Amino acid sequence: MKRLACVLSVVALVVASGLAGAQDETSPTIKVVMQKLHKGANSPLAKLKTALKSNTPDWKSIQDSSKDFVILGAALAKNDPPRGEKSSFKKLAEAYYDNAKALDDAAKAENKQACQAAFTKVSTSCMTCHKAHRPT
User: Which is deepest, 21, 74, 83, 92, by most CB within 10 Å?
Assistant: First the structure.
């Protein structure tokens, strides 16, 4: 009986690790990333904008939103741009991710001024990328 339980445990681990690996290989598209981060009143972008205006920010909410930027921002460079030079897109996507990490680091440190500066960089970088790479 013990042997069967051990074998089933090993099989379950192998299956679980295989499923996790399959999910890692599938990155969200640029459109999905942008919609999840930027679209709507409940988007991480909108939540951060509101939270950072407060005199006493809700750091848990800010940290949750900044984490979303890091996770989804990392997926951008894994995609090919719909138009324009791939190297240009990769450079802009990496800059977006770097700004997202700076935002997340500032949120973890509960540094409002650094959060606002990083948030401004993330939220104003859109047009440069859109002009060069967004489909018309």
Answer: 92
